[in-house]
Fold these 4 entries.
Entry 1:
Amino acid sequence: MIVASIRRIFASFRTEEEERLYSRKAFFNLLGFLGSCVIFSFVAQRLSRQPREIAHIARANALIRAIQT
């Protein structure tokens, strides 16, 4: 309740156009934040996958060497 009251007080000092601009800016900042979270998540997922792939390749090479001898 108190947050809504504080928001109303600050909004009363702005025009409708200023309020719209602030709202749009906040919305696009939120979209940017969520988008960067998704991108960082995918990058972290890719980076965590690489060591496992290298380990699989090393095991496959060791298995091939063992079979050849």
Note: The chain has a mean pLDDT of 86.
Entry 2:
Amino acid sequence: MNKVGSTICLILLHIYLSILVTNSAPETAIVTQIPGFNGTIPSKHYAGYVTVDESHGRNLYYYFVESEGKPSEDPVVLWLNGGPGCSSFDGFIYEHGPFNFEAAKTKESLPTLHLNPYSWTKVSSIIYLDSPAGVGFSYSENETDYQTGDIKTASDTHAFLLKWFELYPEFLANPFFIAGESYAGVYVPTLAYEVLKGIDAGVKPNLNFKGYIVGNGVTDEQIDGNALVPFVHGMGLISDELFEEVNRECNGNFYNSLSDNCTSKLTKVDEDIDGLNVYNILEPCYHGTEAEKITTSYIRLPSSFRKLGETEKPHPVRKRMFGRAWPLRAPVRDGIVPTWPQLINSNNVPCTDGSVANAWLNNEVVRKAIHTAEKSVVSSWDLCTDKISFNHDAGSMIKYHKNLTSRGYRALIFSGDHDMCVPFTGSQAWTRSIGYKIVDEWRPWLSNGQVVGYTQGYDNNLTFLTIKGAGHTVPEYKPQEALDFYKRFLAGLPI
């Protein structure tokens, strides 16, 4: 190449690099301080809004944590909590975010933040998204947007992703995954399908989508609805006699009782499990003002019982309070799905003590630091909102999973095996029902040299995984084990 050609190449390279620098993460989104944390932030954090509908002023809030490893190469993962109506700060604060939150010593002070050694941001960048509009810090200037559902939520979140990657083009080449839990068992595959349609249609920017992860996720009305009775029998929570009777009277159809005798037996099942922690049957129950008494009785148990399900966790931050939760035989039926607060007047409600998250996210200094809307726009942050009316209008997720995996996208379906809210028996059944050839026969998987669960691998890169002793929110109960399977899956390694 002659001297002129070399000069032109250098000029073009300089222009290209200048464009890259110009079109990188917006400076106004950088989070420069984390109130409550006094150390050095191990990676860059960004937060702000993406407008997904200009005419309605519909704005989705995100909190983005760059990987603590190699952010230029590590996967980018979108994390979605469920509900519907629950903020993805649930995952950030209580599950796999970069910090462990220690409750404040006084009402006036902030929670204290410590680095989380098992944060998923050790191996990936994560976008925590409040979705749909009306959830967490996300909002719309047109309140009709708060009447929404599966299809609209997936469409909005896809629009969010396209605009987000325009704001952060330096991450476009990174492998991209979608992950979530609970009702995100609907959010994740419906969004993945929208992303796939966009890729097929040549929509720009072109997302480097590689696969998805669903934890304890609702999937199919019939299969999930029938999962509870075999689960509680297998766990020794109901008698053989009752199990045989309910099988006989219901003909194996537990999710949609067709006779009074079946209903009567299912009611007896409900009564037998009524005192259990629906999110983790190994954990004690906290009944509001009775919590102290129950905690005391728990402490008096022999140490061998107290240690059941324990894992390394520096700062336990919340107590799950007992309540009956959907799905319990009605996980994803078509039509309106009530949010937790909309059920508060019912006896069948789970209650979660989110006081640590409330104290931090509703603090004015914190809100300013993480770039939320003014209080005149979003008055307060709630773990789960009653602001939205949500319609399940996408049907069973099995057809979505078949479509995605048959196209070569990798899928990890994981279950805490002591969750009674979305029992592993349902996830195990529907992954098997797809009919793919078993390529990795049921076997234990290890973490830190110990058996921590079981896995079965299917053709078309579909993997089912259990985590021993974990409840509904696996990384909250088993953070070390959760990081292990997460990093192996993202890297394409056997679990």
Note: Residues 226-352 form one domain.
Entry 3:
Amino acid sequence: MTSTTGTTGTTGTVCPYCGWPDDAEPFQVVSRHATAAGSTVWTRCGCGSLQVRAVDAGGVRVVSRSRPADAPAARTDGR
């Protein structure tokens, strides 16, 4: 399974909301932007999670992702 720090810094290889592999289809490319190191690609997972992918000489990695619109927010009040 994947671990995340908040909604950024994904260290796993699957979506934490639906379990779909990050490198598998289908995902929808929302936009693509050139950077000095390669590119940034915004994608949407099949479950609806919006993901930011960094593409550079090191490969492709998900660097940030949102919850799907229908996923409950995590509680931070300790209850």
Note: The chain is about 0% helix and 40% strand.
Entry 4:
Amino acid sequence: MSKLSVSEARELPVLQDDVAVPCCPPLTERPLSAEEAERTAAMFKALGDPVRLRLFSLIASHESGEACVCDISDVGVSQPTVSHHLKKLKEAGLLTSERRATWVYYKVAPDVVATMSALLDLRR
């Protein structure tokens, strides 16, 4: 592997946890690339589990726009399982989190619902 000279080096963008990057265009606009399909599949796969979908819904509909893990733990599974599912939702880019003292607060990643909605918009 060859090294890049200083003039050839490119600065990569830094992604913030709270900034959603649109995954892809609406499905009716053009076929998805392999990379776009991978990112989109990861989001939908994460939501394909009923417990994860319920957790996502609880957080998205919470009155303050964010929910403490203590507010969303009653979904019929153990606390370690809730944590596992929240981790999967974060890894898929659907949630962000912030630790405050002993609690972790989750919120839907900005624009993620709008991005998913736009992807599925079948109107031309």
Note: The longest strand covers residues 95-100.
